[in-house]
Queue: 2 jobs
Job 1
Amino acid sequence: MAVVAAAQKNREMFAIKKSYSIENGYPARRRSLVDDARFETLVVKQTKQTVLDEARLRSNDSGLTEEEVFLQNALSEHPESENYPQTAILVLRLREGMNSLGRILKTVEKFNGSVCHLETRPNKNEGGQLDALIKIEMSRVNLLQILKSLRQTSVLEHCTLIGDDNITSKTPWFPRHASELDNCNHLMTKYEPDLDMNHPGFADKEYRQRRKEIAEIAFSFKYGDPIPHIEYTATEIKTWNSVFNTVQDLMQKHACAEYRRVFKKLVDEGIFAPNKIPQLQEMSDFMCRNTGFTLRPAAGLLTARDFLASLAFRIFQSTQYVRHVNSPYHTPEPDCIHELLGHMPLLADPSFAQFSQEIGLASLGASDKEIEKLSTVYWFTVEFGLCKENGAVKAYGAGLLSAYGELLHALSEKPELRPFEPAVTAVQPYQDQEYQPIYYVAESFDDMKDKFRRWVSTMSRPFEVRLNAYTGRVEVLDSVDKLESLVHQLNTEVLHLSNALYRLKPPSLE
């Protein structure tokens, strides 16, 4: 499957390869993950169309498909291997059912190919149509030719080239190991204080220089490196102190129990203190001990796809710079105060950490439109979520717990509170310039996870993924062997559970 592997590698031509800035059209005032996802979708769509148009122009073939473009690129990289025998898997939708299959097999024979495996099944949606999976072996150059030939035949509805792991050449690239997050650090904007006059630090040259230095530290970070230590200034600690004391005063009344419990633990262990900004490494170690989540430094707001992908590995990408001292209670972009006080206490709670990871896993290989929906769910839960607790409504969203103005607004009579339903929440318009007019309330973290899982099962992604805790790799569950291995692991866990329950039984009286 070397040619398919090459095609999968070339998928990355459609991935975002650079940071976006104000100069290439990204509105500086739009800073939310949701709008970033929408902008990312637009840019990827435009880039994809440009690549396809250029390839069609070079080939003088207006019908050239994405699969054919990928294969052409693979052949152009290694022209000497065009006659090497390769194995490929094609999924075909046949308009005329079994009557079409004979013509397809003759086409394979015409291009000197051999059929290694063949499966058919009735199509679920279209009456009379048939889906066929054909594993064929032929030369690289003939594989490209047969795709062109199949495209032109009248008996075929469509043809999809897939790899051994059930990933098509159209599926967006996604990391399979935490080390590959080194390739997931693209920023949606360079909303730096020296680029936008509305930024609180625009006129502060010292602050602007400080931000650049800390951003460079994040850009140079690689998987396996210790998180760099930042020596915070007296001004930065003063800013932290103002926000920390405010959050500490308000959380007892307005924050959920899980947040309050972890916050107290952080104070007891000396990680949270009024006059000291926690280092990411000590916070990462604390989270790892409690839920397995760890941190890696980020230079700013990442693309939605990159940020969500990191959650799949229980890794949170966090900034290390501090908001400007003149605006301690609001920041137009994420900063370490927002990350530390807003996100990290709950990422050290097992139930919430699992929910966050499941959002990340759902994002791997998802379409651009589904990334937008996942980002919106993230926005109304992890960032601005509310939950019920003993009949009262409490905050758990990081955007609320690190911004007291919106926290008080969310728990007042002014906004509309709706029950959390992922299918509805995922398409809800949001507000990033003013306070939210609508918030979603979860019955509990467990109820939120259950509803989210049911909704994710309806997504279009044709495969399921899981993180293997032993190897640290994301596995695509697409074969009987992989499922049997998972079942064996689950059987072991069930055995441990059964033994534990047995030992908890009171001794019988004889």
Note: Residues 16-30 have pLDDT under 50 and may be disordered.
Job 2
Amino acid sequence: MLRYFCFLALFLNVKSASAPFIKPCKDGDNACILASSQAVIPVLAPGVPELGVQPLDPLKVPRITSNQGSLKLTFTDTVLTGLKGCKIESIKHDRIKGKQTLLLRCDMVLDGDYVLDGQLLILPVQGKGRYKIDIRDIVIKTVTDLTTEQGPDGKEHWKIVKWRDSFQVKTGVKFHFDNLFNGNKVLADPVIEFANTNWNDVMQEIAPPIVHTIIASVFKEIEALYKAVPADELYIP
């Protein structure tokens, strides 16, 4: 993702006088790429309509599902906020091999509708209603394979071949689910207390599909950027 932010930074520097703070970087100059990419995050977050890039903060995620172990989870109409405040921790990129590794540290809030049914670690859980998850200090790692392909304009464009992600929550997370057990607080309150006390274990249980879906949504917009902007306009050879 860092490489993608740098690509946008270079594009804005070349095409837009409104972003003179964006510094283009040579391939392999990781210090320059890090600084330039960090600077462009708040520019990218609200979207770039002229390039077909939709807003990333707030990010609308229609559906997140998980059926891991004994817990079935569905989140719908989720709105994610916080990506504009993410900090890029490190980047390793090899343009020749088309391989990139990114570490991104964020605080984020998810707000939407939920359906839960099954067992959350050691406790039964069931409910349907509104949910909110406040995640503090999550570090997301993405490893991406990139290639180039010829676009309709006859020029080479970057293309995402595949990617994988992992994460670790460093500080904490707070869970809130309305209407657990049809509003029975005697049953619901212990589940919420347990989830917030054991947030790290709970995050490992429910967060992988959440993080994966968020990254997929971000990459969808990055792909729109790649289709709009030729590769030779996105870096200094």
Note: The beta strands are 59-68, 71-81, 87-94, 99-120, 123-150, 156-177.
